[in-house]
Amino acid sequence: MGHNITSITEFILLGFPLDPRVQTLLFGLFSLLYAFTLLGNGVILGLISLDSRLHTPMYFFLSHLAVVDIAYACNTVPQMLVNLLNPAKPISFAGCMTQTFLFLAFAHTECLLLVVMSYDRYVAICHPLRYSAIVSWRVCTTLAVTSWTLGVLLSLIHLVLLLPLPFCRRQKINHFFCEIMAVLKLACADTHINENMVLAGAISVLVGPFSTIVVSYMCILYAILRIQSKEGQRKAFSTCSSHLCVVGLFYSTAIIMYVGPRYGNLKEQKEYLLLFHSLFNPMLNPLIYGLRNSEVKNTLKGVLGIQRA
Questions:
Q1: Average pLDDT, stretch 199-220?
Q2: CA-CA distance, 81 to 11, in Å (whole number)?
Q3: What is the largest CA-CA distance in the chain?
Q4: Cβ atoms within 10 A of the Cβ of 262, count?
C-alpha cells in the first residue's frame, strides 16, 4: 500500500466534541485552573528558594516535583485551550511528536521523583540518626539527575519507535493532545511493538515504583507505631501524609490509564482520567503540600507578613 501512504504534515486534535457554548465555558474554567497550577507551583518554588529552613533534601525534591508539574501542564494545556476555541486548528507533525515526547518524559520523571521522595521519608523516619549521612546533598543531586535522565531516555525510546511509522490519510487524533496511544491508532503499519513497549514501560515506571513506595511506607508505618509519644507520631504522620496524597492521585490515574484494561467502557473514560492527570494533578500537588505542611505554611505567612499565633 506504498502508493496510498502520504506525507502527513499536521494533525487535528478532536478534543471534546461539545456544544460551542460549553467549550467556551470549559475554556474559561481550564484557563483558571491552568493559572492556579502555574501560580501554586511557582509559589512553592519561590518559598523554597527564599527560606533557608526549607533548604533540606525533602524540599529539594519537592522543588523538582514543582518544576515537573509546571512543565507537564505547559506541554498539554495550552494546546487544549486552543482547541476549545478553534477545534479545526491543526498541530504540526513535529509539534505533535514533540508533545508526545515531552509528556512521556515528564510523566516518567515524576514517577521516579515520587519514589525518591518516598525513600527520603523512609530514611528520615526509620533511620533518623543516620539521615544526614545517608541522604547527603551529593546523593540528592545524583538521585534528581538520575530521575530526569531516565525519564528522558525512556521517552526517547518510545519516540525512536514512533517516528519511523507511516501515517496515511487519517489526520484526526481522538484526544485533546498527542497522547502516544491515540497517535499510534493513525499509523498505517503494525504497531504491536510500540503498544507492547508502552505497556512494558508503564509496568516498569508505574507498577515497580509503586510497589517500592508501598513497601517503604509499610516500614514507615511500623516505625511510627513504635514511637512512644503521641506528638512524635503526629509529627511523623504529618511529614508523610502530603506525599502519600500526591502518590495516590498520580499512580491511581496513571495505572488505570496505561496498565488497566484497553478495551470496554473504561477505554472511553481514559481521556477524562488523563485530563485529570494532566490538569488537576499539577494544580493539586502544591495545594496538598502547602495546606498540609506546617513549614510551608509558616514560610508563606512570613513572606506575607502574617504574624503567627
A1: 87
A2: 16
A3: 76
A4: 12
Tell me the one-letter amino acid at 124.
Answer: A
Mention every residue, 6+ apart, whose C-beta is less than 8 A from residue 14. Answer: 87, 172, 173, 174, 175, 176
DSSP state of 127: S
Q: Please tell me the distance from the alpha carbon of residue 173 to that of residue 219, in angstroms, as a whole number.
A: 45
Q: How confident is the model at residue 108 (pLDDT cuts 50, 70, 90)?
A: very high
Quote the pTM value: 0.88
Residue among 290, 286, 279 nearest 31 (CA): 279
| Dist CA 283 CA 288 (whole Å) | 9
Q: Please give the pLDDT value at position 1.
A: 44
Question: What mean pLDDT do residues 32-48 have?
Answer: 92
Residue 263 has pLDDT above 70, yes or no: no
Cα separation, 200 vs 160, in Å, equals 16
| 84: amino acid identity, one letter | L
Q: Is 258 exposed, middle or buried (CB count within 10 Å of its CB: 0-12, 13-18, 19+)?
A: buried
